[in-house]
Amino acid sequence: NTLESIALIDLVKISDDGLGNLTDLKNLKQIVLSRLPGIKNREGIIKLLKNELPKCTVNYD
């Protein structure tokens, strides 16, 4: 669990459930998300990530 930063950009096949699994990575300090057309509940994912990873910055544009 040493990953501190992740950027997921232009991933067509990633789902809400897939992004939800990022909450297992407790050492994350930064998540960058962009152009993810498979995400159905963008606001819900942002809220989940921020609640489960309070020390992590989440940027979703």
Description:
This protein is 26% helix and 23% strand. By secondary structure, it is α/β, with parallel strands linked by helices. The protein has one domain (5-60). Strands 1-2-3 form a three-stranded parallel β-sheet, with helices on one face. Helix 1 (16-20) links the parallel strand 1 and strand 2 (30-34). The radius of gyration is 10 Å and the shape is globular. The model has no long low-confidence stretch (mean pLDDT 96).
Separation of termini?
26 Å
Q: What is the count of DSSP helices, taking H or I runs of 4+ residues?
A: 2
Which residue ranges are poorly predicted, with pLDDT under 50 across at least 5 consecutive positions?
A: none
State the strand order across the main sheet.
Answer: 1-2-3
- Count of beta strands: 3
* Structural class determined from secondary elements: alpha/beta
Domain count, please report it.
1
InterPro entries: LRR_dom_sf (IPR032675)
Summarize the structure.
With 61 residues, the protein is of the alpha/beta class. The protein has helices at 16-20, 42-52, and strands at 5-9, 30-34, 57-60. It has one domain (5-60).
